[in-house]
Amino acid sequence: MTKGKKSGDAPKKAPGAPVGAGAEMRQGAGGETHQVAGGDVVTLTTAQGAPVADDQNTLRYGARGPALLEDFHFREKIFHFDHERIPERVVHARGYGAHGYFELTDSLADVTRADIFQRVGERTPAFVRFSTVAGSKGSFDLARDVRGFAVKLYTKEGNWDLVGNNIPVFFIQDAIKFPDMVHAVKPAPDREFPQAQSAHDNFWDFISLTPESLHMIMWVMSDRAIPRSFRFMEGFGVHTFRFLDADGHSTFVKFHWKPKKRLQSVVWNEAVKINGADPDFHRRDLWDAITSGDFPEWELGVQLFDQAFADTFTFDVLDPTKLIPEEELPVRIVGRLVLDRVVDNFFAETEQVAFCTQNVPPGIDFSNDPLLQGRNFSYLDTQLKRLGSPNFTHIPINAPKCPMAHFQQDGHMAMRNPIGRANYEPNSWGAAGGPREDPVRGFRSFAAEETGPKTRLRPESFADHYSQARQFLISQTPIEQKHIGDAITFELSKVERPDIRARLVSHLRHIDEHLAATVANGLGLPLPEPAKAARPTITGLPPSEALSIVKNGPDSFAGRKFGILLTDGADAALFDALVAAADKEKAVHEIVAPKIGGVTLSDGRAVAAQQKIDGGPSVLFDAVAVIASPEGAALLAGDAAAKDFVTDAFAHCKFIGYAEEAIALFDKAGLTADLDEACIVLETESDVQDFVQACRALRFWDREAKVDLDAKA
Ligand code: HDE
């Protein structure tokens, strides 16, 4: 599939764009419609509707005189502009959203009365917002960070917000520590840097004093924290929730989103470079996939269990720093989530969407997870601050799509106002008296019986901090384990205080001695004594295949991107064969060329480029090919960006296809002697097919040992 459009091509005309001939109705993000007369442009008006004659000049006394206060058009315009910003989210500020639907594929009527899980085949509208946590709204996409995976499902019995992450556990066990944890990771308050990074003293100081975070740290230091695309990452509800059936019987549940195109991440050196080359890498990727019709898709899976399982499980199911391995409790796939529509307006939808963990429909309920309980307080509070009014549910993106009827009224920006006399209940106005409660359909909480003293106490059952961290590590392939060691070493190398570095390594000794030694060695640090552990590590937990990205990679290159570096005179047949093979694989490609105008192939055909070589480094692609004429290769060999293109692709263990003529570039880049079996010469159509097939492995990890000093240590 050729990438037909450059990003930025919305499927329909953007609001405010010049209007050509023909009548059309345009709908504003707020739902209002603007009539566009046939052949005419719409008249500019003030917000009060007064037509505007001149939008270029303020009202003045004489052309060079002072401005006049009575210029209401100018005042209104500037006033509105001055108030365009709302507070960014205190965490998860940088995010990107899209619309879609959830479709039930397996009924859960046996365990929950939740309406969304009753009828197989039924679709429920959805809005999803992905995000990073630490960076501000304008930060870059490929920070090493947890990704938010927040799903709003507009069910027939109210909105259900499953506000999850791409990592199934969390840093802390009690919500009261959240402000400290977030303060520690965000830029230091005196200097306001570093931005969108965890590689600094404050973060590691907090972490090394908070051993419960170590399991999450293993995930955050793994390649899970630098995903290739939102489309290729998992999502998790993290906490244990409850399903309730019509009789109020409870089943515990953990939620999983599994990407149809399987898992993929980038490598750290690549992430750093992507952030420079395209800070919008993830949002652009999502936009491009949806607008080209390659709709991202996830399966919804549930792990269901009862109290008896909870009582025998090695860890406390209320502890959000623990997961339940899929091998121990299988994930039952019950539906699919498809994102098929980009937003019309980023602010109206993605910025104003207000997720609240406490938004659950009848049939879904909370557990006592202390983090979840704290979140249930926090999100409503946060939305009032961000959106400025308790009427944020009136904003179209937040409004339920099912009927609503209640007696809430007034407040800032009230858009839905009660009609009639009765605004209280009970009342005796009969049918005109408004809505009544429904003891059968209405939401009911699980009738849990709670006992115990009023106290501030962390349960003993939460005290094991290292066993699952170790289980995560040993579940990884060797290359993934190496990346974890590299990441911790890198992060701690940015920590200025040696005692903080040592304190962190003292915890690693409880997770894995080899990891601790590798990190200590990488830092040039004597191995510290092990930290004091609340509980000894259980070393016998079996590896879980589900925790590795590499073991859960795709078996095709579909949805991935080739970068094809072309020059004038490049072999046309080879190029055609490569494009055909990429299309067949359902992969996309972009042409990179010395000039954005493109190249003239060996058969005289002109091919446009999507990237000029300086703006299209190989980090933007999953695999690259170089098809050059001898003259073109000589030209590229003298260009630093072209040399980086191949050396980076090589260093990042990518598959590289090349026409024999391009070898001059590899020579000059100093790669020729190192070319390995993942560097594939393209001469015939069958070479091209072999190359595309080889690319399905995504990376040739064996190479990393050759190009990384740490691997040789
Ligand atoms: Fe959040 N979190 N969080 N969080 N969270 C917010 O709500 C909070 C936690 C998550 O795309 C805030 O609207 C507390 C875990 C996502 O709009 C705020 C605690 C998980 C998003 C808030 C947590 C998340 C948020 C900030 C500890 C994964 C972005 C802006 C108890 C399961 C949603 C906002 C979006 C956003 C509070 C921990 C996921 C401040 C107090 C655990 C995906 O209310």
Automatic annotation (TrEMBL):
Biased segments, Basic and acidic residues type: 1-12
GO biological process: hydrogen peroxide catabolic process; response to oxidative stress
GO cellular component: cytosol
Residues that bind heme: 89, 129, 178, 375, 379, 386
List of catalytic residues: 92, 165
Record bears the keyword Flavoprotein: no
Cross-referenced PANTHER family: CATALASE, CATALASE-B
Region (Disordered): 1-34
GO molecular function: catalase activity; heme binding; metal ion binding
Protein species of origin: Gluconacetobacter tumulicola
Gene3D superfamilies, per the entry: 1.20.1370.20, 3.40.50.880, Catalase core domain (2.40.180.10)
EC number, as in UniProt: 1.11.1.6
Role summary: Decomposes hydrogen peroxide into water and oxygen; serves to protect cells from the toxic effects of hydrogen peroxide.
Keywords (A to Z) from UniProt: Heme, Hydrogen peroxide, Iron, Metal-binding, Oxidoreductase, Peroxidase
Compositional bias ranges of the Low complexity kind: 13-23
Protein's name in the database: Catalase
